[in-house]
Amino acid sequence: MYKNSEGYHDPTAGAAFSAIRQEKRQQVADRLSAISALIPVMKGAAELAGFEVVGRIVLKDKTTGKEYR
């Protein structure tokens, strides 16, 4: 259970923080799902152009700046 700065139980704030954490986890899961769908498309495009992906593909999220390797 969440406690406030004075050490008292604060279920309202705890529920709010829990909802925020859950929303953040869902956003990360959505981004990973998008990346999982994107990589095969990129490899397929390279194949159609007569190329082969031989190294790691690194993607950077423009909104957060996070890099996915």
Write down the secondary-structure element order: HEE
Helix content: 55-70%
Shape: rod-shaped
State the secondary-structure class: mainly alpha
Could you list the spans in which at least 5 consecutive residues all have pLDDT below 50?
none
The number of helical elements comes to 1
End-to-end C-alpha gap: 35 Å
Radius of gyration: 20 Å
Strands, total number: 2
Task: Indicate the mean pLDDT.
Answer: 92
Please list the strands of the largest sheet in the order they lie side by side: 1-2
Major β-sheet profile: 2 strands, antiparallel
Strand content: 5-15%
Number of domains: 1
What would you say this structure looks like, in words?
It is a single chain. The protein has 69 residues and is mostly helical. The chain has one helix and two strands. It has one domain (11-68). 55% of the residues lie in helices and 6% in strands. A two-stranded antiparallel sheet has the order 1-2. The mean pLDDT is 92.
Secondary structure elements and pairings:
Blueprint: H1 11-48, E1 59-60, E2 67-68
Antiparallel strand pairs: 1-2
Brief write-up:
This protein is mainly α and 69 residues long.
Task: Please name the defining characteristics of this protein.
mainly alpha, 69 residues, two-stranded antiparallel ribbon
